[in-house]
Amino acid sequence: MRTLANPSLGSGMDRGKLVRLEPLREVVEIIGQGFLDRPENRRLRRRLASGTLSAGGFYRQILVAAHRLAFLAEVDARGLRPPGPWLLVGGATPDLAGCRLSSDALVHALGRLHDPGPCRNDRETRASADAVIRRQKGRDLSPGRGENHAPGDRIGFDVWAGGYESLLDREPHVDVRTWRFTLSRAGESSVRVSSPSRQAGGCYYTPMELIDAVLDSALRPVLGAAGRGPEPEAAILGLRVCDPACGTGRFLLAAARRMADRLARVRAARSGPRADAYRAALGAIIGRCIYGLDVDAGAVELCRMLLWLEGAGGGAGISDLKRLAKHVVVGNALLGGNGLLPDGAKGRSRAPRPAR
Fold first, then answer.
1. Are 95 and 44 in contact (CB under 8 A)?
2. What is the pLDDT of residues 123-161, one digit of tens each?
3. Are 130 and 112 in contact (CB under 8 A)?
4. What whole-number distance in Å separates Cα of residue 276 and Cα of residue 50?
5. Residue 243 DSSP class
6. How would DSSP label each residue in 252-317?
7. What is d(CA 32, CA 182) in angstroms, rounded to the nearest whole number?
8. I need a surface site. Which of 2, 72, 192, 335 has the fewest CB within 10 A?
9. pTM to 2 decimals?
10. DSSP label at 242?
11. pLDDT digits (tens, 9 = 90+) for 23-38
C-alpha cells in the first residue's frame, strides 16, 4: 500500500541490524560507567558486589536510562514539548532510583547522540550537550513549532529503537573491583548464542517482511471494508489493532501508518486534499486505535515513545496521546494482558520484575 507523505520514523526500524550499533553501544557504556563512577551510589554498588543485582539486570536498567536520554535528545531536535512522566513505565529502573549520574557521562552521552562521528573533541561535545540541557529547562513549545537544533548526522530515535534488539545481544560485564562496565558480543563461537538479557526478557523480534505479510492478510481487508461503508471515517477510527507482544512497536507503527493512509484518503475525498492530511490522520489513529502489551518494560517504553513522536508530529492532542499510557502497557498476554485483550481472556497478568 502506497503511503502519503510519510517522511518520519521508520528508516532505523526498517533497516534492523544495519543501524549504526557502535555509537549506540558507546552511549550505553558511557551511561553505565557514569553510574558506577559515583561512589555515593552505595546501594547500587552493594547490590552488584553481593550479586543481588546481576550484570544483566543492571544492563537492562541502563538500556532504559539510555533510551530515555536518546528520547530527550530527539524531542529537543524536533523542538517539541517534553510529554511528562506519564509516558514512562513505572518501576523499570528500581536500582537506579536515587542514583547520581556523573556530569561527564551525561555530557559525553548527549554528545555522542548528537554527533556519532569520530572527530568530535571534548569542548565541542560539552557545548552541544549543554545547549540541549539549557533548551529543555523550561521549554514551552507546542508540537511542530520548534526548530531542529541537532546536526544532520545525529543518531535519530528511530535508529535507537531499531538497534534495541541487537543491543540485547551484547553481554554486560561489571568488574566490582575496579567498577568498570563493558559490553561484549554474546557468545564467541561460530554458533550464535542469545545473551542472558535477551533470554530473560523473551525478546525476539518479528522481521518487517513478515509484518508486511500479516498486515496484507489481516488488516488490508478490514480497512477496505471500513473504507467502503456509509461512514468510512467513523468506521476506520472505530477499528482497534492490538499486538499482544508488541516489543518496540514495529507492528503497531506499521499498522498505524496503513490506517492513517486510508483515513487521509477518505478525508481527502470528502473535504479535498490537505498538505498535512496524512500527519493529522496518523495522530488520530495512534491516539485512538493502537493497543499493545509486552513483558519487556524497556521495550514497552520505547514503543510508547516511538508512537508519541509520530503522534506529536501529526499534531495529535495531549489527551489523545496520553491514552498511550493505558493503551500500551507491560503485561503478559498469556495471563490475560492487564485487561487490554478482548473479553474472554482468562487469568490476570502483572508487570514482570526487572531481570536480576
1. yes
2. 554 555 555 555 544 443 333 333 444 444 567 788 888
3. no
4. 56
5. E
6. HHHHHHHHHHHHHHHHHHHH---TTHHHHHHHHHHHHTEEEEES-HHHHHHHHHHHHHHHHHTT--
7. 8
8. 2
9. 0.78
10. E
11. 889 999 999 999 999 9
